[in-house]
Amino acid sequence: MRVLLVADYVPDHLESMRRFVLLMNHGLNSAGHEVKILRPAVRLGKLCLGSEGFGKWLGYLDKFVVFPKTLKRELAWADIVHICDHSNAHYVRYLKQPHLVTCHDLLAIRSALGEISQNRTGWTGRFYQRLILKGLVRSHHISCDSEATRKDLLRIAGIKETGVSRIYIGLNYPYSPMQPSESTGHLKTLQLDPNQAFILHVGGNQWYKNRLGVLRIFHLLNKGSKLGGFKLIMVGKPWTETMRKFITEHALEDKVLELTDVSEEALRALYSTAALLLFPSLCEGFGWPILEAQACGCPVATSDRHPMREVAGTAALFIDPEAVENAATTIAEGLSRLAELREPSMVNAKRFSSDTTIAAYLKLYRQLISTTPSM
Q1: d(CA 251, CA 253)
Q2: pLDDT of the residue at 335
Q3: Same domain flag for 125 and 110
Q4: Residue 353: which of 170, 169, 175, 146 has the closest Cα?
Q5: For the CA atoms of the chain, what is the radius of gyration?
Q6: Could you give the CA distance from residue 201 to residue 183 in angstroms, rounded to a whole number?
């Protein structure tokens, strides 16, 4: 089978989307299929790199004007086209052969529709999201990362249930418990004390990641001396000015650490040694860090909302991410039974294997190829 994977524009720096494409590419190649990854080339965007201001508009020219010509040239090669990020669903109008779109979340579309007050969208954003939604409606099939996203899509787009599937995405890296003899070296490389107990957070600075909420919850735990000598390690993008201000105002400089550009093995070491992953997202499309942590035997405290509940199963502490005092109390009360969550966490993570993901997509590919009329 020849599979054309349509990927994202590199200057957009969509790390989770990059990882999904790599997962699909590796899995399909390992299963004996031919794969091409096709993404908009950075041409006009070279004149002003960046995803804001003038650079953003040059990027739009690369994506909307230049890339469709490249896409059309490659279509004859493919048995099936897989648009790996729903944000590129506007390319559906160029596709005549069997194709599908993976929808990772509906957060931007819901924001553009006014459903999410925390994330207001300007007129250009609303126009862009309408194009994406139109592409989703026109596509041959849509796969969603979670049942929560599938239900959102059915509600918003009015698509028949037969046109939408739920395919969980497996681990894109072989996360597993790391022995202390190995993790110690990684922690020292990160300039961390291997004997220091800590709570871990992994995430970017998108509004829904609720990183300020992470700090508020930790501050309450620290203020009440419920954590003893614990520190908070935040892995991901550099802190925002608002986060830095909160840390300074609440004298947390010696309690909270910032780590960026952490390797997969270093992250595996952090998951394997953390007392807890604190992941109080307001919304998610899936929530990979939950799964990564559980695969390493790290207990998780996450939002009592879907899809976080869907991914974490029963092996987690569930909190209200916007009720920080209650969240801190729940975590403090659960500290004594964290060890009981380690084994169930690893069992739950086994539900999400990359092999299962690839097998489900191959089944869907074959179904679409056999049922799509020839053009």
Answers
A1: 6
A2: 86
A3: yes
A4: 170
A5: 21
A6: 18
Which residue has better confidence, 117 or 29? 29
CB 52 within 8 A of CB 21: no
Q: Indicate which CATH number applies to the domain containing 12.
A: 3.40.50.2000
Structure tokens at 145: 């990362």
Calculate the average pLDDT of the chain.
92
CB-based contacts of 47-56 (< 8 A; 24+ apart in sequence): 49/11, 50/11, 51/11, 51/12, 51/13, 55/11
Residue span of the structural domain in which 65 resides = 2-170+354-371
- Nearest-angstrom CA–CA distance, 27 and 208: 30
Residues 320 and 202 in one domain: yes
At 184 the pLDDT is 94
Res 223: pLDDT? 80
* Claim to verify: residue 275 and residue 164 sit in the same structural domain: no
The pLDDT tens digits for 103-139 are 999 999 999 998 888 888 888 889 999 999 999 999 9
* Class of residue 155 by CB neighbours under 10 A (exposed 0-12, middle 13-18, buried 19+): exposed
The pLDDT score that the predictor gives to residue 345 is 95
Please state the pTM of the whole predicted model. 0.90
- Three-state DSSP at 81 gives strand
- DSSP readout, 268-320? HHHHHH-SEEEE--S--SS-HHHHHHHHTT--EEEESSTTHHHHHTTSSEEE-
Task: Give me the pLDDT at residue 51, please.
Answer: 53
Confidence (pLDDT) at 224: 65
Identify whether residues 339 and 264 lie together within a single domain: yes
Question: 3-class SS at 20?
Answer: helix
Same domain? 204 vs 343:
yes
- 284-323 tens-digit pLDDT: 988 899 999 999 999 999 999 999 999 999 999 999 999 9
Residue type at 29?
N
**Long-range CB pairs of 72-80, under 8 A, 24+ apart, other chains included:** 74/4, 74/36, 74/38, 75/4, 77/2, 77/4, 77/36, 78/2, 78/3, 78/4, 78/36, 79/1, 79/2, 79/3, 79/365, 79/369, 80/1, 80/2, 80/3, 80/4, 80/365, 80/368, 80/369
Residue 137 lies in a domain: yes
